[in-house]
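HOLO CASE FILE
Compound: zinc ion
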Amino acid sequence: MIRVLVWNEYRHEKKSEKVKEIYPNGIHEAIADFIRDDDIEVKTAWLDQENCGITKELLDNTDVLIWWGHMAHGEVPDSVAFMVRDAVLSGMGAIFLHSGHHSKPFRYLLGTSCNLTWRESGDSETLWVIEPGHPITRGIDRYFTLPHEETYGEPFTIPTPDKLLFIGNFSGGEVFRSGCLFERTNGKIFYFQPGHETFPTFYDKNVQTIIKNAVRYVAPVYREFIDCPHVRKITDEETYVIK
Ligand code: ZN
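Model generated. Tokens follow.
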């Protein structure tokens, strides 16, 4: 079983009628609905729960964390963000969606500002597959188009991704590194740009396929926080020495 935790800020859905109409049970439930499978169990958590709904024990028992946040990144305490960062360094997989590019855990993992250019003008977006042989792009054609997305553009001030899987091209002209993979110690991190709250992006079949593929890809194969121990020298008796 892959144990997934979908974390959502869950504020837009309460404040905006338009967002509530698209995601009546919250973005986290919409994501949980299409992720859940025979081999994938899903829990959810959100910002206004005690300690953001996150404990170390919960993270220790989570294989993949999916994160959606936007208007309240600053309300996530550093203690929670560092707990998430350390879980990823230990091997927990993480998927940061859309405006999660500015979340504390993402920035603490990548170490840069993760800024970008943006515009809400209802542009369409065509996402182009860069690596057709990658497990995350399995089942996706050469490209697919979302009728409306928030425009995100370069420069996107992330470290150079370990793999670039998608480039988004907006009708307003911008291009954006829309699907990026990073490895940090034992953890795999996938950033995926679509998912603005006022568009029904998480009901798009291609978006669902990509996120579900990513869940299976970033799930840990090895999990341990690598510490910094002082070690003694290995003696000649303990090793084979050519004399
Ligand atoms: Zn947005």
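CASE NOTES: The helical segments are 12-15, 17-22, 27-35, 56-60, 78-90, 104-110, 205-218. The chain has seven helices and eleven strands.
CLOSED: yes
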